[in-house]
Amino acid sequence: MTGMAHKGRVLMIIMDGLGDRAVPEFSYRTPLQKARTPNMDWFAQNGSSGIMDVISPGIRPGSDTAHLALLGYDPYEVYAGRGPFEAAGIGLIGRKGDVAFRCNFATVDDDLVVTDRRAGRVKEPDTIELVEALQSLKMDGIEVIVGLGTEHRAALILRGEGLSSDVTDVDPHDHVRIWECKATSEKGERTADAVNEFVAAAHRILRDHPINVARKSKGLPPANILLPRGAGSFPDIIPFPEKTDMRSACVAGVGMIKGICGICGLDVLEIPACCTGGTGTDMIAKAKVALEALDEYDFVLMNIKAPDLSGHDSLADQKVEVIEKMDEMFAYIRERLPDDLVVAMTADHSTPVSVGDHSGDPVPLTIYSRHMVRDSCKAYNEADCGEGRLGRIRGKDLLPIVMDMANRSEKYGA
Ligand code: ZN
Ligand code: ZN
Fold first, then answer.
1. What spacing in Å lies between the alpha carbon of 357 and ligand 2's midpoint?
2. Per-residue CA distances from 10 to 96, 247, 335, 343, 401 (Å)
3. pLDDT tens-digit profile of 376-412?
4. Using one digit for the tens of pLDDT, what is the confidence trace for 233-263?
5. Distance in Å from the first CA to the final CA of the chain
6. Of 99, 92, 237, which Cα lies nearest the Cα of 162?
7. 210-216: which pairs have CB atoms within 8 A and are 24 or more residues apart?
8. Is 79 exposed, middle or buried (0-12, 13-18, 19+ CB in 10 A)?
9. Which of 345, 225, 215 is nearest to 290 (CA)?
10. Cβ-Cβ contacts under 8 Å for 355 (sequence gap 6 or more)
């Protein structure tokens, strides 16, 4: 290598929950094997393929830990709870030392017994005013930041000295009295006190708020408490653009994925409203945003949530349909491939329709570039990709391989 090769750009396409298991009604094929996917297969025929254990063999990844691994981070090192990623997903990106929680607006009676965990699915504009009212909340030595999520959801960040995520949930996940936040280690004691103080103070503000007075007079459950859960610390990580020397962006419809990418320092791009993140999402519109972003960025991560949703709902036929729709998106990308582009097509985990949740099955992987060795894999699916020359790799191996294909790796040794 003379160092003369041009640096390429990278498009990483994460088809959320794509991997599956044999479906008896499909003659023991997977939804991806059953689906007609000439364009995904074209990438497999013109690239190298393999299968990938995103965390390690048999481990069932969450979307959050999986995306961290795909971005080259060790989730066991940097992942400390879901709260920060949920908070970042609604635009609250905290800093090292902050503790974040996911929260629900809920309804409690006078004895603090939860009567509605979602406060009648309270939503905007009511929640906007309620969140605003909570910003005035002052606590001794601890800064409180509350962010608005979708519908009854919100996020809470506590900022101050000596905070820790070693605390339990306040949300009892049931129609019982709210739980007291408790420390799970000595480190968590100050935080547990702060959480209990926050919940009580927020309840006092929300209880008599005009929005809730109005809701009660309309016969709606008042959103009179915020219930924190899923405490997590913001990870202290080297930002992805710094680590890779690539200007980097993400195109995603789901809050948590945006949050992960935001925390990792990727620019989270605006996408059109038709990219809902649901199964009816306009994937071509999303691909257009991703391809246009490559004018400005060296690395674009694109997440398509739809196959995961069909997997969770155990809808095998719907998963096939979603995959065939994704194939049209790959036709769109294939027709517009820049010469220097490295495309990685994979999933963050399997969500088999027979499981209805994430599983530890490895996911299919194809890496395409004009210069990629074309191996014997002719079809993009869980079985054929396993015959490819990339073999069976771990999620953390993906980034170094695509960086190398893009001529962006540093030489190790002379
Ligand atoms: Zn996922
Ligand atoms: Zn999922």
1. 6
2. 29, 10, 17, 6, 11
3. 999 999 999 999 999 999 999 999 999 999 999 988 8
4. 888 889 999 999 999 999 998 888 998 999 9
5. 11
6. 99
7. 211/126, 211/129, 211/130, 212/130, 215/120, 215/122, 215/126
8. buried
9. 345
10. 21, 311
- C-alpha distance from residue 174 to each of 108, 116, 196, 206 (Å): 11, 9, 18, 21
Q: Could you tell me the residue ranges of all domains in the chain?
A: 9-78+238-405, 85-233
Q: Which ligand is nearest to the CA of 308?
A: 2
Give the residue from 67, 145, 137 showing the smallest Cα distance to 99.
Answer: 145
As a whole number of angstroms, the distance between CA 256 and CA 233 comes to 15
Residues 6+ apart with CB under 8 A from 385: 44, 49, 50, 51, 364, 365, 366, 377
* C-beta separation of 79 from 68 below 8 A: yes
Query: In Å, what is the CA distance from 260 to each residue of 167, 255, 343, 398?
Result: 22, 9, 21, 18
> Cα(189)–Cα(209) distance, rounded to whole angstroms?
30
Q: How far is the CA of 192 from the centre of ligand 1 (A)?
A: 31
| Alpha carbons 244 and 377: distance in angstroms, whole number | 29
pLDDT average, residue stretch 263-281:
82
Alpha carbon distance 116, 137 (integer Å): 24
Which residues touch 142 (CB under 8 Å, ≥6 apart)? 158, 159, 160, 163, 194
CA 319 – ligand 2 centroid, Å: 13
> Domain 9-78+238-405's class?
alpha beta
In this predicted model, what pLDDT tens digit does every residue of 223-234 receive, in sequence order? 999 999 999 988
Alpha carbons within 13 angstroms on the beta-carbon side of residue 404 total: 10
Q: How far is the CA of 307 from the centre of ligand 2 (A)?
A: 9
Find the 309 Cα to ligand 1 centroid distance in Å: 9
Q: Is the dihedral of CA 230, 234, 238, 239 positive or negative?
A: positive
Ligand 1 centroid to residue 349 C-alpha, Å:
6
